[in-house]
Here is the input.
Amino acid sequence: MTTLGIGLSLLCALTTNIAFLCKHRGAVAAPAVSARHPWQSLKGLFASRWWAIGWAIGFGAWMLHVGALAIAPLSLVQAVIAGGLVLLALPAERWFGFKLGRREWIGLGLSAFGLAFLMITASGQHGSSYSTSAMTAFTGGALGIGLALLLSGHQHKRLRARPGPILAIAAGLLIGLSDVAIKALTETVPGNVLSILSPWTLTALVASICALYAIARALQLGEAIQVIALSSVAANLAAISGGVLVFGDAIGADTLGIVLRGVAFAAVITAAAFVSGPVRAADAFAGKAPARA
Here is the structure.
């Protein structure tokens, strides 16, 4: 079952990357997203054909993600998806006009190494339950950090100059929180359908809706590859941490295994720092420049 979960995670990673690239093309063509006008912003986004296409592809990726979470450890699923950044290069260059340099290719290679090692050493061991107190604490912490990032972006000049990356990180944390909440639901809903009426369903919905607005604005203000990479890193760091802290996912069977898998996790996450470097984008969509505040 773990192997199937890895396969679903890889497919999820590929479709998620394509969805993000489509959303970027749609977001820069849509009116600026504003927290003061959420409904108008949402209508403007979905009136953009490429955003609607990206959202539909992203929904399919989300279904694959839920399937992977139901049969594989949370931390492993997220690590595979994080490593799936290596799958970003082909659609980005061939279909969306981005040109990746040496720095980005190093990041993709490092990501592939970490992904391959995690797949080879997957043990399939993970916790079968979670504590409500641990889940509550994790939810509060993730929301607190996300809110702090958003507020700091308004208070500090140096952060205000880079709103795209800050919003991308905040959106990623919210996506990671949603993933942890969904994993909690997969532990109970199959056996008890009524358990879907829980605080974690509300947590997943609120986090996902807030992330939608944050990532849309981040794609309008920042470079596409940078925003995708940073949001992916933040989401996976949050979800992997939730897998270990909330669900008790096994890091390794012994000291050597823990060290080696720790290196692999670090390689996957560090790779995104390379991928998020400067990327040269071709004029792929009628020369439309990103909307800026």
Summary: Confidence is low (pLDDT under 50) at residues 280-293. The chain is about 75% helix and 0% strand.
